[in-house]
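Revision sheet: structure tokens.
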Amino acid sequence: MINKTIKNKGRYYTPPELAEYVASLTITNSNSTILDPAFGNGALLLAAFKVLKEKCAVNANKQLFGYDIFPLCIKFQKKYYSGILKEENLKINDFFTISPKNHEKRSHVIMNPPFIRHHKIDHSQYEKIAGVLPETEKITKFNDMWAYFVFHSLKFIKKGGSLSVILPWSFVQAEYAKKIREYLIDKFESINVIVIGKHFFENTQERVLILHAKNFGVLTDKISIGYTYDIPKESNFLIDIDKNVWINSPWMTLVSRQFKKHLEKFENKVCLRPLSDFVDVKIGTVTGANPFFVIDKKTIQKNKIPMSVLKPIITTSKDLRKLTVDSVKDWNKYLLVIPEYQKIENEFFDYVKSGENLGYDKKSHTRKRKIWYSIPTPKKCDGFLHYMTKEIPFIVLNHSELFSTNTVHQIFFKEDIDENTKRWIQFSIFSSISQLSIEILGKTYGGGILKIEPSAAKKILVYDGNGKDFPDQYEDEINKLLKKGNREEIIDLVDKWFIRNLEIPDNLIFDIKTDFYVIRKLRQQ
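Predicted:
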């Protein structure tokens, strides 16, 4: 049997141990029929065959069916499977071109659908999807491919049957997945979500969960969710949740069951406020073609691009290394901001033409502009905040003319916020309480990446100093620790200040800090 993970355009083929768990979770008796709408290398169907044989099925291979447009299973069968699966049951076909008849509905659908991101689904493929999904307006074009597989697969399940799907963590985190979760309500009598921390796919950092829904066609009576690092041997880790939680925030419920209690206790001791009370958070400049618009000094000199159309810019949060940006004198990266009326000539003209030759004028953002290479002049921001990071995010105040691309958030303080308050907010965001709120509000992606959307950033809990003067000595100390990469020491420093100056009990800070490191470790596993 194949025991390697194989990736093909967002398709991560199921390792045997995970396939066997899904099959054993799903198949209830020897008469079960099983469909895999994206059978790939056949791991799930082979695992289902094994379970059926254990249940004394006489013709197990006749009970297994599949669709796929990349049928590796058929190729592998000749080399590894010795004809276990029936080729006539394995259709080389696009699942979204199939509308099942009653006799083609199965007892169970098991699958590991492609994890192709929404922006990589081409228009022709989406037209196929829309053709078989009459209710597609319920799940917008911002869904990744797996969502459409879940939606369409319900048409292939017999009444009383089940659905078992291997999905990315985004199923319980992403805003767009809310529509999918909502659609599943009252389709199955019970829904279980098993969130797994272990990396099962060799070629990606994507972590998965298992959606297991039983008794199709009966109103939902029970929904449960739970976290386990490895394939579970028991089910006592599952937490029952109500339908409202399922639709809105199953991930937050999973990670913050006891955390919320600690947050509430802390908030009763200290007046914490959402970041939105003080700032507006916006994404940085969207160029539509960073290789053309974000350039270094060597490119500037070679093409004789005038400094009048250049603005210093950061493209990664790794450039945020201290509490303030005071100067851009020696900056190396610049944003090309050419006004519509700007005359371009000589080498500069050749540079623009080279961009057109590379097709940058045909990109989705550039082609919407009156002049494709003319970006609206960005507004100077008051600071920066991490957007996607593995580490501990924080605010950097901008005392310069620096800008950012959309990989780093820009913050704009409200007019009545003084410098003293800005420094308190910047200081307090290093506290365990603020960092815990960030972890809860953010979304976890492959490789332990925490993604903080602007809407989530605005909800981060911060302390504004309550009119106190900010203690200047902390700025130098924090900058030294940032330079060394010791952000966890900064958290200890700020937490100790809270204990000493705001009469926060040691044990409460300890609980908050423990919660923070637990959820952070969960993200980074």
